[in-house]
Write a structure and sequence with these properties.
265 residues, Alpha-Beta Plaits, globular
Length: 265
């Protein structure tokens, strides 16, 4: 289940850091309290989406409304998040004051063996104790890059309990094909598609490398659906690895909750 939580922005012009996934994680944790253990929950989420301008301090948000996309195969988790979010007249994310307005559910894509994706949050391919290995740069066109994502995906799918051992064994067809022209263009313009990100897990600072680029994936449709719904790679529950499909069907969204629903209940 993939939803968009849409907020009215009370203080237009307020600033968030460029990478603010940990702020959103803290917000979700605060909203749910002890009702959900985020460290064991399989889900993913985007950064805050809206009209922004880049400033020295970070991203300045100037749109009337902003959106966070959240996705999980656990519908009960999504429904609880919606319920608890709308129990608050307003929420604070960094310096932004957000007023919950409505929730849209996205239409389920038709998953095929070949799918094209965009990264709307960085992909992490390693999550080990060693920060040195986690920060190692691996070029996306190498077999090692694809192999690490395959191993990560199979482990996560197996842990979910939703697939039989026979199904897991059948998911051997797997290859990620990055958009090479995009990678070359980014490099030529002296921009980055891979950066080091810092987060705190269990009181310890963790440094990991995240990658952001468009790609094509060859895999079983069930694998495609899993990574689209639960995130691709490591640390998806910390806001990494959320994907989108180019030319998404905006008309396929439907409102499933709004403030007006509560007012008329």
């Amino acid at each position: 289940m993939r939803i968009r939580i849409i907020f009215s922005l009370k203080n237009k012009g307020a600033v968030l850091p460029f990478h603010h996934q940990k702020l959103i994680w803290n917000l979700i944790k605060e909203v749910l309290g002890s009702e959900a253990d985020l460290d064991t929950q399989s889900f993913c989420y985007s950064g805050l989406k809206g009209q922004t301008k880049v400033g020295r301090e970070g991203l300045h948000y100037f749109s009337k409304r902003v959106t966070i996309v959240v996705s999980s195969t656990d519908h009960a988790f999504i429904n609880l998040l919606i319920k608890r979010t709308f129990e608050n007249p307003h929420l604070t994310l960094g310096n932004l004051v957000l007023i919950p307005e409505k929730v849209e559910q996205e239409e389920r894509p038709d998953f095929q063996e070949t799918m094209k994706y965009l990264c709307i949050s960085p992909m992490v391919i390693r999550n080990e104790r060693s920060n040195t290995r986690n920060k190692e740069f691996i070029y996306p066109t190498t077999d090692q890059f694809s192999d690490l994502l395959y191993e990560s995906t199979m482990i996560r799918m197996e842990k979910s309990g939703a697939y039989t051992p026979e199904e897991i064994a059948s998911f051997y067809r797997f290859q990620i094909i990055p958009d090479v022209k995009y990678l070359e263009r980014i490099t030529q313009n002296e921009k980055k598609f891979a950066r080091i990100y810092t987060l705190i897990i269990d009181g310890s600072i963790k440094e990991i490398r995240g990658y952001t680029f468009p790609f094509e994936l060859y895999a079983d449709p069930k694998v495609q659906e899993f990574i689209y719904t639960n995130g691709f790679g490591e640390l998806s529950h910390h806001g990494f690895g959320m994907l989108d499909i180019p030319n998404e069907n905006v008309e396929g969204r439907k409102v499933i909750h709004s403030v007006s629903d509560e007012e008329t209940a």
